[in-house]
Hints:
Elements: H1 10-18, E1 25-29, E2 36-40, H2 43-47, H3 58-68, H4 78-88, H5 94-98, H6 101-118, E3 127-128, H7 129-147, H8 159-162, H9 166-178, H10 189-227, H11 229-243, H12 250-256, H13 265-277, E4 283-286, E5 292-294, E6 300-302, E7 306-310, H14 312-316, H15 361-373, E8 379-383, H16 385-391, E9 407-408, E10 416-417, E11 422-427
Parallel strand pairs: 2-7
Antiparallel strand pairs: 1-2, 3-11, 4-7, 5-6, 8-11, 9-10
Amino acid sequence: METLPSDSIIHNIMWKISEDYSNGIFYLSLWPFSGTMMVLADADAASQLDSLALGKGLDIIDPIEKVTGGKSLLTMKGDEWKHWRRLFNPGFSAGYMMGLTSVIADEVGIFRQKLLVKCTTGQSEVFLLEDLTLKMTFDIIGSVVLLAERSANLSNSNDTTRSKSIASLFIDDYLKELGEGNLGKRENPDTTQQIKHIITPQVRLFLFAGHDTTSSTLLYCYYLFSQNPEIISRTIAEHNEVFGTDPSQVQDKIHKDPQLLNMIPYTVAFIKEVLRIFAPAGAMRQGRSNVQIIDADGRVLPTEGCNVWTLVQAIHHNPKYWKDPDACIPERWLVGPEDPLYPHKGAWRPFEWGPRNCIGQTLALLELRIALVMTVREFVIKPAYEDWDKLHPKSGIRSVKGNRAYQAVKGGGGAHPADGFPVRIGLRSC
């Protein structure tokens, strides 16, 4: 579209189209490039699918499996998907994730050290912060999925269980299901080959999808902090109250008492608001002959033969569901249902809802909490798009709805801040 940057994500294009359809539902044919899509820009319509475990269509499955090298939780369907999702769920539970906080904090500590190096001469030169956040989130997902070590100082925890990575936990459960004991006793070469065949695509999926979107969300946290000084002030005050006034001690405090991360409600509310304003991805499902959508006027709309696309960006910015939808207001997530700010049921969908929701959402939210408590009080991160545009001039539109850090295509599993999020960084004086 002529009103959008050339590298804008397709979600923004669909969002623009959806504004012409007041009921929030429309069909779109992209023949001969792909099949028919049913686009849902309405929260109540999207919620009608929440109880169904609709899988992906073949035109979505094929490119994903070329990356993963086989079937994964993202592409499996029916009973096969239910079986493997059940085996993986324990490794992504909130309780198990809390046992990995030290592993995550140590990776964030490396990121923090890199930021400190940038500040050795005062304010840094312009650089692309995404280069550092992608490296950090990739190392985190690699550590927790493959290489996690035992977290010390965890009260009421089983050290043997807590020492396992997600992959190791899954393999142990799978071997128990086969009746072959635990990981240390496997001797059957056929079983070993079978495990490799099953686990490799899953690990590739987690590495592929598990770091990309979290990195972008962290960058948008820094971006919205820079635009809203009152929010950063309140966040800093909350961190001072919970973790003490010395930011350099946060990593050790997380090691000793990870439950502190459950005592920062305003920070969590801010993260939710960032995920609303800059949703990292959408949801595409395959329609079925027995699944219909009923719109607000009572019309029954078939999904058969369609890829059903939940257009999260449009839903997240619809004034029908959100007061001041383009404003960053963390208080939405702290008020009761009687307040006009209170979120409309089913209108917040960054991880989707229902049985096929994002299995990694607990890990992503934990990563973001740890990254923020270990960086926001110590560093002032300022977007440097004006400097970047002078250094890299080009013609054409360079913003979406007033945001220079618009969501752009770069590859990976989600949307990225435009141009890798150029910034200048310095130490916070107080």
